[in-house]
Specification:
The chain contains 1 helix and 10 strands. It is mainly β and 148 residues long. Strand 9 (134-139) and strand 10 form a beta hairpin. It starts with a strand and ends with a strand. This is HSP20 family protein. Residues 26-138 form the SHSP domain. InterPro entries: A-crystallin/Hsp20_dom, HSP20-like_chaperone, Small_HSP.
């Protein structure tokens, strides 16, 4: 099972509504990146939206069943003769943590980055997959093996 937690997400949303955008140079916690997650057969698929972030600015780490995705959107190198008219896209570090249940195989995660979307495929651990169990029945002295 895949679990996520972000106890301060609602607080951040309310603070941004009340105070507006933060001033440059002020401290804030990393902004979570939007994601979708679903199970497809024997694997979980998780997609993160990371538009405008180069692949070398993305880090993936797994430690003690915690998957951490970190990304950094860096400012564009525009030159001295450029005057910026609008700058609404957030810059800086973004991170997201997912707690991977014991039923997932954290050693075999596959990652692909295409068109600004990071897609992870996390397989279900072999011991967590459904399996058939043989039943031995004993009727009137005869032993029969039944596959359930």
């Amino acid at each position: 099972m895949l679990m996520r937690t972000d106890p301060f997400r609602e607080f951040d949303r309310l603070a941004q509504q009340f105070f507006g955008s933060q001033a440059p140079g002020t401290w804030s916690r990393p902004t979570p990146m939007p994601m979708d997650a679903y199970r497809h057969g024997d694997e979980y698929v998780v997609s993160f939206d990371l538009p405008g972030i180069s692949p070398d600015a993305i880090e993936l780490d797994v430690e003690r069943n915690v998957l951490t995705v970190k990304a950094e959107r860096r400012p564009l190198e525009l030159g001295d003769d450029v005057e910026v008219q609008v700058a609404e896209r957030p810059l800086g570090a973004f991170s997201r943590q997912l707690f991977l249940g014991d039923t997932l195989d954290a050693d075999n995660i596959q990652a692909n980055y295409e068109a600004g979307v990071l897609t992870l495929k996390i397989p279900v651990a072999e011991q967590a997959k459904p399996r058939k169990i043989s039943i031995t029945a004993t009727d009137s002295g005869d032993r029969k093996e039944i596959n359930a």
